[in-house]
Amino acid sequence: MDLKPYEIACLDERKMVYFDTEAGVMKGNGVYAALIESFATASGGQMQAMQATESWETDKGPITVRFQSHGETVVFHPEYLGDWVADELFHVVSARVQGDSRFYACHDEQTQLGCGQDAGIMRLTKEEMQKLEKAFAWKFHQL
Which domain holds residue 52? Predict the structure, then answer.
């Protein structure tokens, strides 16, 4: 296989969540609940996704996403954007992953992976981020 470093990083579900933001978000698909579970896996234990659910009142919302994280019930209401993932997801995830390692949006300028409508969100310390920027010319933006 001829995999590039970014493509290899995308396979590490313990550190990275890689997805298309035009994700088929619609009533019955459970995209937000699945993404919450993926972010919990990549959070290094900082976030849990116990009992993650997603409910819709109509085909166009309002949407309610609910999950348990370390004994706290977390509820948010992402905006309906057709089949696109709303930014509220990133705010909720970012608020739960604090400290030495944080979530950063990552993209590779050379291959264009992680650009456009794809999202590569990686959990890194500042030192890890700086090493990846230097080694691969990747760009990062903290969530």
Answer: 5-142
How far apart CA 65 and CA 58 sit, in angstroms, is: 14
Could you give the 3-state DSSP secondary structure of residue 44? coil
- Residue 22 CB contacts under 8 Å (≥ 6 apart), including other chains: 83, 84, 85, 117
Return d(Cα 141, Cα 143) in angstroms, integer.
6
Torsion, Cα 141 18 114 100, to 10 degrees, reads: 20
Bridge partners for 123 per DSSP: 103
The letter for the amino acid at 9 is: A
CB contact set of 131 (below 8 Å; sequence gap of 6+):
none
Q: How far apart are the first and last CA of the chain?
A: 32
The whole-angstrom separation of Cα 46 and Cα 39 is 10
Q: Average pLDDT of 108-116? A: 56
Token couple for 87: 């930014």
What would the mean pLDDT of 103-114 be, rounded to a whole number? 69
Which secondary-structure segment (H or E) carries 67? strand 63-69
Our count of domains for the chain comes to: 1
Q: What pTM does this model have?
A: 0.92
